[in-house]
């Protein structure tokens, strides 16, 4: 797999990383064997970079990664996140030095490592100046606990404020064929500042696949159960576009998922998407997306199938968007 730079002076990482939220059962039941098989497939596909968080299953995702690495004798490059108060009402964040240190040390213990390549503040604690939080993260970097630091779901203005204190290695926001807000300043700001932009949910939370989802079968705890884009009449309207994308991909011998990820990769050489899956077979559907190169004709077709703003429904419900920094 091709590689890309993580931050200004960071290591080279695989152009496509693996998001490990699904290991904690967010989208369906999973187990240790399935998680291990998925990590095996990632390693074999040339993926070197994993993305996780202390809140994914209250540390379960990190624990599984740590156990796999010990069992297999293989070390991935790892990004993990902290700053959300686990068990508190949605959107509650604590970015204090004491809280972040405690949770970073917990993450390192579960992962079985002395340091991670990247540590994100998962959600901002808005009353606390981002400059103060950046000073905390930079001190962790200087201690050798982390190789670089970043933020999730922040605005271009917040990124510039943080970068005035110390270089920000990465910013992670939702970005895909149906979520384009980062085009309104964030991707550009990352490019200007030498910050890697990490698109999460590049597969539209599973909608960009080769088979139709059935929202009626979503579990009650599934994030998508109350997400506007997966509720009627929005879901049916969205599927018309998705089926057209599927036909576009299959006509060219590609999977739908690979096309969706290739699209994110080709929005800039500083992007490293993190599609998530708990299934090794699903991973193999997009593991070679970095090999796809669109022609001008392909791009024109994609713009027609999925023009900017085509998605029906907001990307979050009012309850889900709590704690996320809005802009534009």
From TrEMBL:
It holds the Pfam family Aldo_ket_red. It comes from the Bacteria. GO terms for cellular component: cytoplasm. InterPro entries: Aldo-Keto_reductase, NAD(P)_OxRdtase_dom_sf, NADP_OxRdtase_dom. SUPFAM superfamilies: NAD(P)-linked oxidoreductase. GO terms for molecular function: oxidoreductase activity. The keyword Zinc does not apply. Gene3D superfamilies: NADP-dependent oxidoreductase domain. Keywords: Oxidoreductase. The keyword Ribosomal protein does not apply. Residues 16-305 form the NADP-dependent oxidoreductase domain. PANTHER family: AFLATOXIN B1 ALDEHYDE REDUCTASE, ALDO-KETO REDUCTASE YAKC [NADP(+)]. This is Aldo/keto reductase. It comes from Maritimibacter alkaliphilus HTCC2654.
């Amino acid at each position: 797999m091709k590689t890309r730079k993580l931050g200004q002076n960071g290591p080279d990482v695989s152009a496509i990383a693996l998001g490990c939220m699904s290991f904690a059962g967010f989208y369906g039941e999973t187990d240790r064997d399935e998680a291990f098989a998925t990590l095996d497939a990632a390693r074999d596909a040339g993926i070197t970079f994993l993305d996780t968080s202390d809140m994914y299953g209250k540390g379960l995702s990190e624990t599984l990664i740590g156990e796999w690495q010990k069992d297999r004798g293989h070390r991935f490059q790892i990004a993990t996140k902290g700053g959300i108060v686990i068990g508190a009402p949605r959107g509650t964040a604590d970015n204090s030095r004491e809280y972040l240190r405690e949770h970073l040390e917990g993450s390192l213990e579960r992962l079985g490592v002395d340091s991670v390549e990247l540590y994100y503040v998962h959600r901002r604690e808005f009353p606390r100046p981002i400059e103060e939080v950046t000073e905390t993260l930079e001190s962790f970097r200087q201690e050798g606990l982390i190789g670089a630091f970043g933020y999730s779901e922040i605005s271009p203005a917040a990124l510039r404020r943080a970068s005035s204190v110390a270089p920000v290695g990465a910013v992670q926001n939702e970005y895909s064929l149906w979520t384009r807000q980062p085009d309104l300043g964030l991707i550009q700001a990352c490019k200007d500042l030498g910050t890697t932009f990490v698109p999460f949910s590049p597969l539209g939370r599973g909608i960009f696949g080769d088979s139709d989802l059935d929202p009626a079968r979503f579990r009650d705890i599934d994030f998508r159960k109350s997400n506007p884009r997966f509720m009627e009449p929005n879901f049916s309207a969205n599927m018309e576009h998705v089926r057209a994308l599927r036909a576009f991909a299959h006509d060219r011998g590609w999977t739908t998922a690979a096309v969706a990820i290739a699209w994110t990769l080709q929005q800039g050489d500083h992007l490293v998407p993190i599609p998530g899956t708990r299934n090794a077979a699903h991973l193999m559907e997009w593991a070679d997306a970095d090999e796809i190169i669109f022609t001008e004709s392909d791009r024109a077709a994609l713009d027609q199938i999925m023009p900017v703003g085509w998605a029906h429904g907001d990307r979050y419900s009012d309850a889900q968007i709590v704690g996320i920094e809005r802009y534009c």
